[in-house]
Amino acid sequence: MVENKNIQKIKKFEAQADEIIFEAGKKSDKIIEQAKKKAAEKIEAEKDNINKTIEEEIEQFKKKIDQRSEKEMDEFKKLLETQKKNINKKVDKAVDFLIEKVDDIIGGNIK
């Protein structure tokens, strides 16, 4: 009988141990789920930070391109203005030459 009581006590302890293990498993599952959730949140936050950084770098690059384009356009505009002045000088000289020739023809000083 003592042996039977000991077996019952052992079975009772085994049942209690199983219950403790089961509860610990549930708690560890909750802990694992919370850890997964926190990790997912941190990953999302980091992903957002990375995307924000990339967008900022893209904007800075666009600004550099715009500044460079603006600078190149200013240089091109100056070049065009210089060419216009040079062309106008040549046109003025040609017009002066033609006027002089017309005056010579009218005045009878044909050369």
Explain how this protein is built.
With 111 residues, this protein is mostly helical. Helices cover 95% and strands 0% of the residues. The longest helix is centred in the middle third of the chain and has 106 residues.
Rg of Cα set: 47 Å
**Mass-distribution shape:** rod-shaped
Q: Which sequence of SSEs, written as H and E, runs from N to C?
A: H
Q: Using DSSP, what is the number of strands?
A: 0
Largest sheet: none
Helical content stands at: over 70%
Work out the strand percent. Answer: under 5%
Multimeric organization? single chain
Question: Could you name the ranges where pLDDT drops below 50 across 5 or more consecutive residues?
Answer: none
In round numbers, the mean pLDDT is: 84
Distance between the termini: 151 Å
Structural class: mainly alpha
Number of helices: 1
Please summarize what this structure is:
By secondary structure, this protein is mainly alpha-helical. The protein has 1 helix and no strands.
